[in-house]
Design brief:
The chain is mainly α. It is built from eight helices and no strands. The protein has helices at about 1-10, 15-25, 25-35, 40-50, 55-70, 75-80, 85-95, 100-110. It starts with a helix and ends with a helix.
Length: about 110
Amino acid sequence: MKTQLRAWRKKAKLTQPQAAKTLGVPFKSYERWELGTDQPAGKNLRILLTKLNLDIHPFVGRRLQQYRLAEHLTQRAAAAKLGISQSFVAKLEKDQQRCPAPVLRKLNRLAPAS
């Protein structure tokens, strides 16, 4: 994400404060995202995905892992809840697999974006 944000900002010839204003997000949030010390989530992630025309799939694995850890689930248990294999969960968490729409819908029901 940080590489994509910086590339977009440089291409648009914007400063970080200008980029944050253009995206409609707080400057401090944008700054942390570009530095890689934080990741956008929920509404801010949707704003970035839409305005920068980014693919959601690289963010699904992180969200799945956060949900799994917050619920104290193993990959096997998370896989059972999502109706997929443990190896598929592992691949999603490593961004090695695109998330099919039915699995994404199940994840959205289990762990709604904030």
